[in-house]
Amino acid sequence: MPTIRDVARLAGVSMMTVSRVVNQRPQVSPGTRERVLAAMAELDYQVDLTAQQLRSGSSGTVALIVPRLDHAYFGQLGAIAADAVIDRGRHLVVEQSSASQEGELAALSLARLHQYDGAILSVVGLGNAEVNRIRDSLPVVLLGEKEVPARFDHVMMGNVSGARLATEHLLDRGARHVMIVGGRHGEPTDGMQSARTAGWVEAHQSRGVEVDPRLLLELEFIDTGVTRRTVARAVEQDPTIDAMFCVTDEVAIGALAGLADAGRRVPEDVRVVGFDNLRLGAHIGPGLTTIDPGNEWIITEAIRLLEARMSPSPPTAAEHLIAPVQLVERGSSR
Amino acid sequence: MPTIRDVARLAGVSMMTVSRVVNQRPQVSPGTRERVLAAMAELDYQVDLTAQQLRSGSSGTVALIVPRLDHAYFGQLGAIAADAVIDRGRHLVVEQSSASQEGELAALSLARLHQYDGAILSVVGLGNAEVNRIRDSLPVVLLGEKEVPARFDHVMMGNVSGARLATEHLLDRGARHVMIVGGRHGEPTDGMQSARTAGWVEAHQSRGVEVDPRLLLELEFIDTGVTRRTVARAVEQDPTIDAMFCVTDEVAIGALAGLADAGRRVPEDVRVVGFDNLRLGAHIGPGLTTIDPGNEWIITEAIRLLEARMSPSPPTAAEHLIAPVQLVERGSSR
DNA sequence: GTGAAAGCGCTAACAG
DNA sequence: CTGTTAGCGCTTTCAC
């Protein structure tokens, strides 16, 4: 591989001049620039970004760390983020944190994170202890539905309001036995499932309907197949169920399948609403009514916060943002 | 940030000794190792991977470059690859190549690629001219359904055999008017759609059924919504269609929706088979029959080839592999 | 507008 | 088992 020194020799200039041309600095005369560019082309020169980064301290790269690459939701997040980061003149790389046995922490090795100018971290399954290990040495914005230490910037979905919106929609449609599929007891700050369960409860209160605790359906884990089996069993045991709020769209797809297995029609017998607004939802069964969590908004804000932290200006107080949600009405709840 | 020099000073040893401890080299006495580890903990030392890489020439990182992060297929690929790479003692980062206006080439900036020990490149939409710009300076394995220059290692799906298998399955079930949804004329080496169309033709020949060229349904582009509209129109115009081979599962999901829109039942009126074996397929409608392209096999082989290229041993001739496919039979074709 | 010197943090190669 | 020397490829700083 040719180095900047080879280019300098060939062009008859100093390494510094080549460096200036490579980095598009203005203080180079047109003639010199031409000769340097010619030499670069001649040698097929490529900058060594590693050396550049070691010396200059910046890599031009931002990382997005997600738990799983094969969950549709994180894929959408990654695609949006990649475009947004490019528009800001940097590049995005995505890493999967829960890879293999080593688990979340391995990918979070601070050493690796330090290779980037900044990082957007999706903190599902990460304890505060782990998150706290991130020193203030690196600009970081947190994503995710759990409470995080106050000193970090944090963007989350409108879990409570979204779940409430979805459940109110079902109650307003006349449903009186709205099951929450994938619900979980606990504080709304514990995570996605607890927060959405809180919204489900709130909706009942706002509409003056009693909450039936037997309608909280826990799932062994969040998975389409698991949901399918669990839901089919549930509706066979309790034929009065007339609606389901599913904590995610993937769960809702499992619920639709389970309801079909049990011979229930959607929306005639049971209405269904999901959460995430996956693209696919529009084309599944009668069309999946869902909550749009505002992913574009989330990424836009996360990157805005990250840019602020990466800028040389004095660091401001951490922000904690909640994205605005929207109901997307389709056939499964009509 | 503390450096190796700070640790060395605190532990009362040379930088080299600290380096040996950090890199788990055996030739350090237990006592010294203890003191160094203590000093590292005390200072909360983290290696600078950039400097390490500049000096040692290796980053311990492999890149996977995919066109879109939000296509379920590439998400699954990424997840499998991340696990496989970790098991080999390295890390994986995923980049999206078709980000924003700049397009494929930007992410392929050779300079960026050189930061990695090796790269797995999904070459959808990449011309041979672009691929050829990759010098032999970096271990690279190509993925994708188009023909590539012979000097590159290349792993691809069994497009022709898979499409043939799917179509034969439909013909054997008694279908006589098997439409290919998302088909395209051209050489089988042109890309995914042409290759699968070739398999569709082969199946007709092997079963002695005439190919009706009007049953080749082109799509404006590969998208669930586009497919839905196009398929609904097609079956209204030609009521004799009794089966569909869809070039991908995402297309198949659109076809299922379009068939429902047009009042056709699956599988009673029209049988449907997809291609990709997305997890979701099992739970959509009657269950989507599909071709499993052997993603695990593809990634396993790609990484094996990459490891071989990354090893110091002499480079062997490039390999061009085709993954074995399998029919996954579900309700949509019964 | 251009160049020389110095060094980012680390490790290969060689001594001992 | 431990240390010294040199330098990876680049850019910062300062000089001209």
Automatic annotation (TrEMBL), chains A, B:
CDD domains: HTH_LacI, PBP1_LacI_sugar_binding-like. InterPro entries: HTH_LacI, LacI/GalR-like_sensor, Lambda_DNA-bd_dom_sf, Peripla_BP_I. Signal peptide: none annotated. SUPFAM superfamilies: lambda repressor-like DNA-binding domains (SSF47413), Periplasmic binding protein-like I (SSF53822). The keyword Membrane does not apply. Keywords: DNA-binding, Transcription, Transcription regulation. Gene3D superfamilies: 3.40.50.2300, lambda repressor-like DNA-binding domains. PROSITE patterns: HTH_LACI_1, HTH_LACI_2. Residues 2-56 form the HTH lacI-type domain. GO terms for molecular function: DNA-binding transcription factor activity; transcription cis-regulatory region binding. Pfam families: LacI, Peripla_BP_3. This is DNA-binding transcriptional regulator, LacI/PurR family. It comes from Ruania alba.
